[in-house]
Specification:
The complex is a heterodimer of chains A (about 325) and B (about 300). Chain A is α/β, with parallel strands linked by helices and about 325 residues long. Helix content of chain A is about 30%, strand content about 25%. Chain A has one domain: P-loop containing nucleotide triphosphate hydrolases (Rossmann fold), CATH 3.40.50. The chains are: A alpha/beta (about 325), B mainly alpha (about 300).
């Protein structure tokens, strides 16, 4: 068993819904509801799910860009949720983030050099020459040229911008990188280049990734283990091979069935998802998925299934296996 | 330490064409193409130069009274380009010196309201919650008064003088800037690069001054230019009502009100200060509109 780098326990993030003249709390959106998982050193954990299932929120809560409502996040044995603001700021040196939209995540008024230099400035690299040298090195590492340093973000293509975003995350030599849909805003042809880059960087710098995506194909390509989220809850988590070969949860099955096969002659027996994602402000009682599940039983409508180890290192939250 | 898989990605660009086009430079380029904006800028520059070199341009001082009939209320001539007023003073000289007062009031009042408005607006927008409520309600209260009435009230309290008129104009413009920058900060705050800055581990102050501010400043420049125009009009209005500049000072609004009595006898005493106001205001407005077109983020890409 390899070393655990990050351990998330019963993490919750509820957003209050306010209404009325006085802005009273009238309800809450359970964006992340009781999520627990761990990440081993050097591995890639993929988090997948439909839009609005809380995967991005999970990523942000892990870094405390959003304050968690409940639960703990242990990074190298230290509980991040209990750190003071200033200590957390320092801790961000070790945990960095790559954002989804490379057109929005870079400050349009800063040059690439300034964008990449800032992480070093705020984490105490005082020597200007050293900072400049490291910026140029990093540009080469992510496959850009050092003379790109003087340019502004709008002079780059989407793929190049995302390389800049990755370079920024790498500047402080972090241990963990949370990649929040890093390729979903890119052209398909560019996606694989960026994914390859991420894999190469992982080997070179011994990085650990939490890779958030809605595309199971992309996640399969890069992940060692995959967690599937539905309506703020983790419904299944296991090694990537197991998940793709023998999915347990009906939702995972439906997700896998929805991956298009690039061959028009193949007749698929599709178990496609019916209906829409229920509102996370008012999730169904019991198992959140029961409204769309093809194997729904009576118990699913009343009792919420726990995430349990059904096979070795294969966890799922489904009553089908609780006997 | 280059990675082999990424080599094919590198776009071969000759370093020769490596030129950093900053967003400001780009804005300047598009501003230059806008003819009306350039005309406006020239008008503004003309009045600025007029104000700076007034003592060299004006043939007389501001209060050289010549109370003989041959000098009083004279029509424009080669001796008195813009004619003379009821005290026999050269209107041309007074209009030239008047540009000093109007521009001075315009710039200072606007700078004052920008500084205070921005400070309040940034705090309100960035920290939100009750701070925002308090500051926003303060803006609402200021905006609830018709601005010129509020200015009159402030001058009435402080006593009529040019300086107090300037303060009054600065105060009535505070909510305009405050609201503008607050809304900018609110929208910039939602941008992903602010989230990214936080994720990188920057302190609030750094995010505010290095990331939020530079991205909020463009509309302030536009609004500021346009506000100078209104400030000049407001100063003239206060002067006209006798609440601004005092007697011998050649403030344009004051000159208008003095000329009122001789409207039929000597229309030039009214016409030239009025023309000066119109031209300056037009200049600033054209320039401001041009700046808006050049700096508007929606025009990019």
């Amino acid at each position: 068993m390899s070393e655990v780098l990050l351990k998330v326990d019963k993490l919750k993030k509820y957003f209050p819904i306010t209404g009325g003249v006085l802005g009273r709390k009238v309800g809450e959106v359970k964006a992340v509801d009781d999520v627990s998982f761990f990440v081993n050193k050097g591995e890639t954990l993929g988090l997948v799910g439909e839009s609005g299932c809380g995967k991005s929120t999970t990523g942000r809560v892990l870094m405390r860009l959003l304050e968690p409502t409940e639960g703990t996040v242990e990074f190298e044995g230290q509980d991040l949720t209990k750190l003071k603001a200033e200590d957390m700021r320092r801790m961000r040196k070790e945990i960095q983030m790559v954002f989804q939209d490379p057109f929005a995540s870079l400050n349009p008024r800063h040059t690439v050099e300034k964008i990449l230099e800032e992480p070093l400035i705020v984490h105490g690299v005082k020597d200007k020459e050293e900072r400049k040298r490291r910026v140029r090195e990093m540009l080469e590492v992510v496959g850009l040229n050092s003379y790109h340093a003087k340019r502004y973000p709008h002079q780059f293509s989407g793929g190049q911008r995302q390389r800049i975003g990755i370079a920024r995350a790498l500047m402080t030599k972090p241990k963990l990188i949370i990649a929040d849909e890093p390729v979903s805003a890119l052209d398909v042809s560019i996606q694989s280049q960026v994914l390859n880059l991420l894999e190469d960087l992982q080997k070179e710098f011994q990085l650990t990734y939490i890779f958030i995506a809605h595309d199971l194909g992309v996640v399969k390509h890069i992940s060692d283990r995959v967690g599937v989220m539905y309506l703020g809850r983790l419904v299944e988590i296991t090694e990537a091979d197991k998940l793709y070969e023998k999915p347990l949860h009906p939702y995972t099955k439906a997700l896998l069935a929805s991956i298009p096969i690039p061959d028009p002659d193949v007749q698929q027996e599709k178990e496609l998802l019916k209906g829409d994602l229920p509102s996370p402000a008012n999730p169904p009682l019991g198992c959140a998925f029961h409204t769309r599940c093809s194997a729904c039983m009576e118990v699913c409508k009343t009792t919420r299934p726990e995430l349990v180890e059904i096979e070795p290192s294969h966890f799922a939250a489904c009553h089908l296996y609780n006997k | 330490m280059e990675l082999s898989t990424n080599k094919e990605m590198q776009v071969p660009i000759e370093p020769a064409e490596e030129k950093a086009v900053s967003p400001w430079l780009e804005a300047w380029r598009s501003f230059r193409k806008n003819k009306l904006a350039v005309i406006g800028t020239f008008i503004v520059l003309f009045f600025v130069l007029l104000a700076i070199f007034a003592p060299y341009i004006a043939p007389e001082g501001i209060n050289e009274q010549k109370l003989t009939t041959s000098d009083r209320l004279q029509a424009p001539s080669s001796e008195y380009w813009f004619g003379t007023d009821d005290f026999g003073r050269d209107v041309f000289s007074r209009v030239v010196y008047g540009s000093r007062i109007s521009l001075w009031v315009g710039f200072l009042a606007v700078i004052g309201s920008i500084v205070i408005g921005c400070l309040l607006g940034i705090v309100a927008g960035y920290y939100g919650k009750w701070v925002d409520s308090v500051i926003s309600r303060f803006f609402d209260i200021l905006l609830a008064f018709p601005s010129i009435l509020l200015a009159i009230a402030i001058v009435a309290v402080l006593g009529p003088s040019l300086r107090n008129a300037l303060i009054a104009i600065a105060i009535i413009n505070i909510p305009n800037f405050g609201r503008l920058i607050r809304s900018r900060v609110l929208s910039v705050k939602q941008e992903e690069f602010i989230m990214a800055a936080k994720a990188v581990g920057m302190k609030n102050s750094r995010i505010l001054f290095h990331h939020v501010m530079p991205n909020s400043i463009a509309p302030i420049i536009v609004q500021g230019t346009l506000a100078i125009a209104t400030a000049i009009i407001e100063a003239a209005a206060l002067g006209f009502l006798g609440l601004g500049a005092e007697a011998p000072n050649p403030e344009w609004g004051k000159m208008l009100s003095d000329a009122r009595a001789f409207l039929t006898q000597a229309p030039w005493t009214l016409f030239f200060p009025g023309l000066a106001i119109v031209l300056t205001v037009l200049g600033f407005n054209l320039m401001g509109d041009g700046l808006r077109d050049a700096l508007d983020p929606r025009m990019k890409n």
